[in-house]
Amino acid sequence: MPAARASGSTRPPHAIQPHGFLLVLDRARGTILQASASVRQHLNAPPAELLGQRLAYLVHPADGRFHERLRAATQAERIPHHLGTVAFIAVGGRFDLVVHRHGESIVAEFEPAAPQVRPSDLGGFVDQAQRCQTADELCELAVERIRRMTGFGRVVSLELDPDGHGRVNAERRGRGYASLLGRHFPAVGQPLQARADARAQGLNYIPDTGSEPSPLEPARHPATGACTDLSLASLRAAPPTLLHCLEDVGARAAMSLPLMSQGRLWGMIACHHAQPRTMPQAVRSQCDLLAQVVALQIEARQAQAEADRRHELQRLTGMLLAAMSRHDSVPAGLASVPEALLEFADATGAAIVHGNECQTFGQAPSRRVVQALSARLARTGGTGLFHTASLPGEAPEFASLRDVACGVLALPISELHANYVLWFRPEWTRGRARPWQACELESAAELRTAITGIVLRKAEELAGLADELGRINQELEAFSYSVSHDLRAPLRHIAGYADLLREYEGPRLSDRGARYLDNIGDSARFAGRLVDALLTFSQMGRSALRPSQIDLSQALEQIRRELAPDLDGRQVDWIMGELPSVHADAAYMHLALRNLLSNAIKYTRGRDPAVIEIGAWPRHGGHVIYVRDNGVGFDMKYVGKLFGVFQRLHRMEEFEGTGIGLANVRRIVERHGGRVWAEGTPGQGATFYVFLPGAQPPAATAAAMKE
């Protein structure tokens, strides 16, 4: 390849290939304004000698009406017309003539005419093309026919995605030509063809990549002072970048045919030959016509495929919505139909992120990585649909995911939280996945709208249930208060009369009678304590809170003094951490903390020493307070029973109590907008946690604490 090929700066910016010549004519008079340097070899005349002459008087036979034919063929701008062949007076032979209009000029291109070529039978090709099931099969048929028609050593078909990245989907090649089948090419540095050229200029033919380009003389248009636009000229010189790429694939001659579908460049057919190769205009025209037939067939298949895909998306959307309607939450519904979830976006992997929970399906990144990606989307992507075919390009920190998540489609399912449904596609070409289709993005947006409707409907149902539950709770509280109040007097009477009977008739009772009387008194007093506890529990839902700032260190110190008699000489090691001030009702908070410490003292009985630790840490604008002990602990499978009314995990004979203390703790904390939970291990102790929000807790604070 000549040195001029190595650098674009040494190549004329407006030149043609020397296998033909080009004339720029004044459209009004037909005089020659510019001529390519290649007229020397084709017309045996220097360009300067032709300037100012009328083309009609140079052709043979000279005919003044020749210019009228040129004007008639160039009524519309930028539409090339083949006007057959012409001869010149100065030289023998004939030239194929192609003209197009540019402004007030006519660009006329001449190539030596080849012997008559028998037209190829495209009727049989069309019949075969209509029987092809896929675009790849159609392209296979096309490259085979074009290779037979042209004799090029290698003919390939390249399918382009909407972003311009390509995949070689069909190939026919001779011996000695390397295979390009299956290779992917990025939008930049395309070795098969410059896509902008193909879209704008149609067929591109380079008979010899090593030939020197032929510049126009003069270099600028005499009337406008600008360089003449040669973008529609089939003789235009190839750009250096394309020549470098052709050299990389071992081509000295090349031809490319664009495949246009639905107004965009769907792909192209590219022909390569290891040596320079001349291709007659008639053969090129037949190849161009065949490419147009292929493009029409592809467009028809695309339209049908898109219609089928839209129908499939409607079916899958219905399945997903039905699944969500059958379950209590959107994530649970989607997770119940993983196959439909993946098919919906034609993805290899998917994930559902809801709060701190993450579920993955198919080939997806780890849960930790998915949650990190969701957090990033929440910070930068807003609440709209997010999609990319190149996650490494959008977020370089996720470049290692290209094998499973090079392409990402993220659907927000909450206006407030970083909750997403995500779909993943692996790398398709260098650094890019297959792009998401427009119909897939439209369906995803429609699914989000439908999910919003489901969430709102469920919210209305929950609001109705909450109102009904509130009414029932009020009735139950009133009932429990009434029952508790009405039972107190009879129980006192039973206990009182039992004491009187023992006092006055005790000496005359048998041992068995005295034992029975003791049982009656003990049971009546225990029932009285249960009634008192139930009355206290019911009053907690009826009394108004009077919050104030409470110093927990002082409050707990007072509770320790109150509980000192319960220690009964036991050794208890108290570990007191730094405790904050909280905004709460002082009386109720005193009761809740007293219950927790009383439990810790009771269930460490038998430990020497007993260790009780109290501490706190900030969380979500509030504080988590914990009470930890080294007592008997509990089995975590029963943790759901801990905070229920009259629920006990240990026998009455082992540890006394009414079974309502922790229920009181939960009700007090929840009325403050907080949350309680516990962890334990049998024989090793337990830890009880209380989360209390700040002075003005946000509505979602307690929900945010769920981990």
Q: What Rg do the Cα atoms give?
A: 44 Å
* CATH homologous superfamily assignment of the domain at 545-704: Histidine kinase-like ATPase, C-terminal domain
CATH topology value of the domain at 545-704: Heat Shock Protein 90
Strand order of the largest sheet: 1-12-3-2-7-6-5-4
CATH architecture of the domain at 545-704: 2-Layer Sandwich
Give the N-terminus to C-terminus distance in angstroms: 68 Å
Helix amount, in percent? 40-55%
- Average predicted local confidence, pLDDT: 83
User: What percent of residues are in strands?
Assistant: 15-25%
- CATH class of the domain at 545-704 equals Alpha Beta
Structure description:
It is a single chain. This protein is α+β, with helices and mostly antiparallel strands and 707 residues long. Among the domains are: 3-112, PAS domain (Beta-Lactamase, 2-Layer Sandwich); 327-436, Beta-Lactamase (2-Layer Sandwich); 545-704, Heat Shock Protein 90 (2-Layer Sandwich), CATH 3.30.565. Helix 4 (122-131) runs antiparallel to helix 5, helix 5 (135-150) runs antiparallel to helix 8 and helix 17 packs antiparallel against helix 18 (661-671).
